[in-house]
Amino acid sequence: MHITLRQLHIFQCVATHLSFTKAAEQLFLTQPAVSMQVRQLEENVGLPLFEMMGKSLYLTSAGDEMLFHCNRILQNFSDAKQAIENLKTLKSGKLRLSVASTANYFSANLVAAFLKQNPNVHVSLNVTNREQLLKDLKSNDCDLLIMGKPPTDIDVRAKPFKDNPLVVIAPPDHPLGQERRIPLERIAEESMVIRELGSGTRFAIERFFHLNKLALNVGAEMSATEAIKQAVSAGLYLGIVSRHSIEQELETGRLIELDVRRMPISRSWYLVHRKDKKLTPIAQSFRDFLFEQTAEQSTEGAKP
Hints:
Layout: H1 5-17, H2 20-27, H3 31-45, E1 50-53, E2 56-59, H4 61-89, E3 93-100, H5 104-117, E4 121-128, H6 130-138, E5 144-147, E6 156-163, E7 166-170, H7 184-188, E8 192-195, H8 200-211, E9 218-222, H9 225-233, E10 238-242, H10 247-252, E11 256-257, E12 268-274, H11 281-302
Parallel strand pairs: 3-4, 3-5, 8-9, 8-10
Antiparallel strand pairs: 1-2, 5-12, 6-12, 7-10, 7-11
Helix pairs in contact: 1-2, 1-3, 1-4, 2-3
């Protein structure tokens, strides 16, 4: 069947009023034009949709069935139009955001602030490791990513928005906690717990020690920053993590940051998306919001 939305709309109007004349008046059409559209619809269906009994117009059984589905089709089409308009105006919609696990310490607050301004937007926040971030990027399973080191084998747009310093942490009773300007060579003698191979943090740490012509003494590898903090707090090792991930532990005195020469290791957080990705208005709005927020925080931090 070749049925047009125009035919369905005219049929619905005639069926509602059970009058070609009233339907024509409401639709600002001539009665012959309305009759022709209904006749074409009946030809496409292959059954009569109306029948005249005396001077009254009635729906046939096929007409009743057609009206039921017609109402659903036109309502779905109306809902689709409204959904598209809502996306244009940020009234509603979905944002798929994939975030490196370490970035979750600040990204959750960013998302919460964005949702406060856009309460009808739904954010799907996937907090994961670098390997899964790259999979999400390759398979186009996310709109935007927050990660430390943008990939070089995927064509992406990546813009830094926040510093991500990596620092050495220790339990509060560690002997090095009393020292200042600790030589990096002294830190290299200590057994360290760091992220697993393949993580962006691990790559940055190894590269930093290599550039300083030092070997990294890896005592343990862990796939989560929380596990690293637990191991360091227990006095098993020193650790190197993002400063963003230890704010609470520093405040409570559970961990300390060592004063090490040539550190922290300078990194940045990047907002990333595929270069060929057409950002939705919601994704573009979150992108603008993120850079505005971090710019304001940087300005406030620079005030004396």
